[in-house]
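Good morning C.,

I know you're traveling, so I'll keep this short. The sequence:
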Amino acid sequence: MSPAERERDLLANLLKLELFRMQVRLYGPDTRRSHPISDEALWSCLRELRAAAPLDSFRIWLVGSRLDPCRNDSDADLVLAPKADSSLSDSTIEDALWYCREYPLYRADPTCIVDPCYRASGPHLDLAALLPDEVRATVKLFSPQLLHEVLAGRIREYRCFSRFSIEYVRRAGETNYYRKLPRGNFGGRLLPYLRPALEVI
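The tokens, ready to paste straight into the viewer:
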């Protein structure tokens, strides 16, 4: 094995170790807390995230089931998107995702679970049906669940993103959350829809 090949192998192993450490810290057994988080406590945490320097270049929206009342047992789903005229590097996006995951787990009071993602186009802002063939491009930290989805062949279009994130393209109907969405009447058809996102300001 040449010195260049040994260097590539060493770098690959170090990256695997770094990914493993990230997954343990942000998705390991110590992060699986099930205590309810009131809306008041959640919004206190979200306002702290909004004021944090790593998120200065981003707009932040709360999406998903925590928009409904009395969902204190649910995790909080966040969508990050660039502010106008912001130029974001991959590492800047990854650092923001890391902060949104780590801060609520270890530094918020009370602690809570936040699941952040980045979408350059932002979230859905209006109430509208989400058709199964709608394609969505997303960046997330490479969690054990996402790793499982990739290895199982359920995510086919993807690329490694910065150090330990993944950017992937997927049809809405192929996602785990699609079947959990509320349904409404759209033109006489009962279809899943996304709740309009609520911006954290």
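Safe travels,
E.
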